[in-house]
Amino acid sequence: MLPEFVDHVLSFVDVPALRPLRIVADTANGMGGLVAPAVFSRIPQFDVEVMYGELDGTFPNHPADPLQAANQRDLQARVVAGGFDVGLAFDGDADRVFLVDEQGRSVSGSTTTALLASVFLRTHPGATILYNLICSRVVPETIARLGGTGIRTKNGHSYMKQVMADTGAVFAGEHSGHYYFARNYRADSGLIAAMVVLGEMCRTGATLSALRAPFERYAASGEINTTVADIGAVIARVAEAYAAHPQDRLDGLTVDCGSWWFNVRPSNTEPLLRLNLEAPTREECDEHVAALLALVTA
Predict the structure, then answer these.
(1) Disulfide engineering: 66 pairs with which of 13, 43, 83, 89, CB 3.0-4.6 Å?
(2) Mind giving me the DSSP string for 82-94?
(3) What is the separation, in whole angstroms, between the first and last Cα of the chain?
(4) Is pLDDT of 242 > 90?
(5) What per-residue confidence (pLDDT) applies to 157?
(6) How crowded is residue 18: how many other Cβ atoms within 10 Å of its Cβ?
(7) Sign of CA dihedral 252, 253, 254, 260
(8) Whole-number pLDDT of residue 270
(9) How many CA within 13 A on the CB side of residue 203?
(10) Torsion angles phi and psi, residue 85, rounded to 5
(11) How buried is 135 (Cβ within 10 angstroms: 0-12 exposed, 13-18 middle, 19+ buried)?
């Protein structure tokens, strides 16, 4: 089964056209420690180092959740210290991946979604691409600029896969680092996402820091979680405070304030309200976040 899986992953890139890259992959003692070396062993152009490759469900080095910045710190340090071209941070079952550029800077899920969308729209002109509602505005802007059809969705695996089936989308991305591929049975795969990005680096000859730059035009808050007693009441209060602006309830509450936007939505498992906000500058982003958090905790 593993050889067939490796062949499938490699089918997403032109292996003979790949150029030498130095890569370090943090597999977080999860399944990536089994599958990533199997894939990379078939690419002689790549020099690959694996961190925490031993399978260990106690996750002795750090939790297998690369969405949390603290869990990428070892990888970021290793990229810089070792002079690697790129770092790959996988979650426990390797269905998610976050990238780290050669300067040791993490690449957001939104930036990676926009980058992958640009690749698929080059190879599939006019294609439909999905993105979840907390992705940066740069994602729909990129899809539109390149002639694709973008569809905004709520969060979640099952929902995303169903919309892909309904619309014939070739690719879908979530800010959380899940990337779905029609040719992968509409399932998410961190390894396929990583291979497509590595292929683009090889095709263009560009560093990851150069590839990411056109897709980072805005400042984002990241996901901010606040414990609240009555989530419904808080969302209603926020909606009333921003009643002058267009709103939707696709997932929680999203408010379009013109040059900036935000979403507040409940956690499915905890008494938490999740805030995501994006603005043109870091100063504006921080200012609006402070105002929203004051309203949430009032």
Answers:
(1) 89
(2) HT-SEEEEE-TTS
(3) 55
(4) yes
(5) 80
(6) 19
(7) negative
(8) 84
(9) 12
(10) -80, -30
(11) buried
- The pair of three-digit structure tokens given for residue 263, joined into one six-digit string: 């979403």
Helix H or strand E segment including 23: strand 21-26
From residue 222, alpha-carbon distances to 161, 167, 231, 276, 277 in Å are 24, 29, 20, 6, 7
Q: What is the residue type of 171?
A: F
The residue written with tokens 């370090």 in the block is 24
Structural contact between residues 6 and 191, judged by C-beta atoms closer than 8 angstroms: no
Beta-strand pair 21-26/86-90 = parallel
Q: Which two tokens stand for residue 195?
A: 């291979």
Query: Is 171 within 8 Å of 114 (Cβ atoms)?
Result: no
Angle at 59 between CA 57 and CA 61, to 5 degrees: 155
- Whole-angstrom CA distances from 116 to 39, 120, 131, 151, 177 are 20, 6, 11, 15, 12
| Confidence band, pLDDT 50/70/90 cuts, at residue 93 | very high
Sign of CA dihedral 96, 9, 113, 198: positive
Distance separating alpha carbons of residues 104 and 151, to the nearest angstrom: 32
Q: Is the pLDDT of residue 1 over 80?
A: no
Report d(CA 246, CA 135) in Å as an integer: 18
- Residue 155 has a pLDDT of 85
Rounded to an integer, what distance in angstroms lies between the CA atom of residue 210 and that of residue 205? 10
